[in-house]
């Protein structure tokens, strides 16, 4: 488990570095000293890597079943510890939340489905999903929007990354009725968290060899709140002279993504804007079923779908697309330094899509979730 421990130490160090220069120095040092790995090193001496699994609502359990089937076929050295947390199925409580948190804190890595949030107000403004992310301080949500070879959409050959701050902003759960028929909702923006997500975005761009970061905001209207976020991004940008920095107002960003998404590389933004933009961008390459996502804190990593939808209308119909969840699972394996298994699964998924014979309804085909999963398993044995 030495490699995993090293990875966790590095993540913690990067996020909590005392200043931006130390942050960048740690990143450069880690890349420079990374030793090549042998495929045989994928299996830790102690046994399988423990990973918390939270199937969630909607088609989540079906997608997790696909992940488990593919992992089994690929002999992936991961042991899933399953927990269930659902507000819509009356499977949510403080006790269950603490059990999930305990598991995630111990394992440091999790793969989760969408925990659906009911519309009705039942006395608690913060959903269990929001509380889970806050308690683990999962401040950075990363959605890599990339076209899949062989699957044609309106815009092809796209490759952009959306980085979203997801612990404050409009999703602070601070609402009250100040007078009868008048609701006030508070948007919280802090310098500390704005700087942190900006550093994360520039560090990500540096590590991944990307050229540009675009800060998305509405500072022309929300002059203090979004103004502070924009100011923090500008300050951090000065520490990364090799990375081009641009700013864009959120409404213009939406239009530009539809008209010319190729102009973007890495986009960083506050909570609500990120929630909207990652869904919009996912639609450019095929929808919620094909885009993976992940969330990070200083200590923990959570892997999930990039566009979080329960797809409740598909429950039990065996038509859900497991692509996004399988690619997220592949990214999780890479995070665990299981490069061989990660590449094996990602390559198998992309091969099935490129061949085009087995596609779920959302991709214009007639295959079931099970059909797609079996095709991926077959591709594992016939690379």
Automatic annotation (TrEMBL):
Please tell me whether the keyword Transit peptide is annotated for this protein.
yes
Cite the Pfam families for this sequence.
Iso_dh
GO cellular component annotations, sorted alphabetically? mitochondrion
* Cellular location(s): Mitochondrion
Q: Which InterPro entries match?
A: IsoCit/isopropylmalate_DH_CS, Isocitrate_DH_NAD, IsoPropMal-DH-like_dom
GO molecular-function term, one example from the UniProt record: oxidoreductase activity, acting on the CH-OH group of donors, NAD or NADP as acceptor
Give the highest taxon in the source lineage: Eukaryota
Gene3D superfamilies to which the protein is assigned, alphabetical = Isopropylmalate Dehydrogenase
- SMART domains cross-referenced by the UniProt entry: Iso_dh
Q: Which UniProt keywords apply?
A: Mitochondrion, Transit peptide, Tricarboxylic acid cycle
Domain Isopropylmalate dehydrogenase-like, which positions?
50-376
Presence of the UniProt keyword Transit peptide in the record: yes
Which BP terms in the Gene Ontology apply to this protein? isocitrate metabolic process; tricarboxylic acid cycle
Job description of the protein: Plays a structural role to facilitate the assembly and ensure the full activity of the enzyme catalyzing the decarboxylation of isocitrate (ICT) into alpha-ketoglutarate. The heterodimer composed of the alpha (IDH3A) and beta (IDH3B) subunits and the heterodimer composed of the alpha (IDH3A) and gamma (IDH3G) subunits, have considerable basal activity but the full activity of the heterotetramer (containing two subunits of IDH3A, one of IDH3B and one of IDH3G) requires the assembly and cooperative function of both heterodimers.
* Family affiliation: Belongs to the isocitrate and isopropylmalate dehydrogenases family.
Instruction: Describe the protein's quaternary organization and the partners it interacts with.
Output: Heterooligomer of subunits alpha (IDH3A), beta (IDH3B), and gamma (IDH3G) in the apparent ratio of 2:1:1. The heterodimer containing one IDH3A and one IDH3B subunit and the heterodimer containing one IDH3A and one IDH3G subunit assemble into a heterotetramer (which contains two subunits of IDH3A, one of IDH3B and one of IDH3G) and further into the heterooctamer.
Put simply, this protein is called: Isocitrate dehydrogenase [NAD] subunit, mitochondrial
């Amino acid at each position: 488990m030495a490699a995993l421990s090293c990875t966790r130490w590095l993540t913690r160090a990067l996020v909590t570095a005392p200043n931006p220069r130390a942050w960048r120095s740690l990143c450069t040092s880690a890349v420079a000293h990374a030793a090549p790995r042998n495929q045989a090193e994928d299996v830790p001496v102690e046994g399988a890597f423990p990973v918390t699994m939270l199937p969630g609502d909607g088609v989540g359990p079906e997608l997790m079943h696909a992940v488990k089937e593919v992992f089994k076929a690929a002999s992936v050295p991961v042991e899933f510890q399953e927990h269930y947390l659902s507000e819509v199925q009356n499977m949510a409580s403080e006790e269950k939340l603490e059990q999930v948190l305990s598991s995630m804190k111990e394992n440091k890595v999790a793969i989760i489905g969408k925990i659906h949030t009911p519309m009705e107000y039942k006395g608690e403004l913060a959903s269990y999903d929001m509380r889970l992310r806050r308690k683990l301080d999962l401040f950075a949500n990363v959605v890599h929007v990339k076209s899949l070879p062989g699957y044609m959409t309106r815009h092809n050959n796209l490759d952009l990354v959306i980085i979203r701050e997801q612990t404050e902003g409009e999703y602070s759960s601070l609402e009250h009725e100040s007078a009868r028929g008048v609701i006030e909702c508070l948007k919280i923006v802090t310098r500390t968290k704005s700087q942190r997500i900006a550093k994360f975005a520039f560090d990500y761009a540096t590590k991944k060899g990307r050229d540009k970061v675009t800060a998305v905001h509405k500072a022309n209207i929300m002059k203090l709140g979004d103004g502070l976020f924009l100011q923090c991004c500008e300050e951090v940008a000065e520490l990364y002279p090799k990375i081009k920095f641009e700013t864009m107002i959120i409404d213009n960003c939406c239009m530009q993504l539809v008209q010319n998404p190729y102009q973007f590389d890495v986009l960083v933004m506050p909570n609500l804007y990120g929630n909207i933009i990652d869904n919009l961008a996912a639609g450019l390459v095929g929808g919620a079923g094909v885009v993976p996502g992940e969330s990070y804190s200083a200590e923990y990593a959570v892997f999930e779908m990039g566009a979080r939808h329960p797809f409740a209308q598909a429950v039990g119909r065996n038509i859900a697309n497991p692509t996004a969840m399988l690619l997220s699972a592949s990214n999780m394996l890479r995070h665990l330094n299981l490069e061989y298994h990660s590449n094996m699964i990602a390559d198998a998924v992309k091969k099935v899509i490129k061949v085009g014979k087995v596609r779920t309804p959302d991709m214009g085909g007639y295959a079931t979730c099970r059909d797609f999963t079996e095709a991926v398993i077959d591709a594992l044995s016939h690379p």
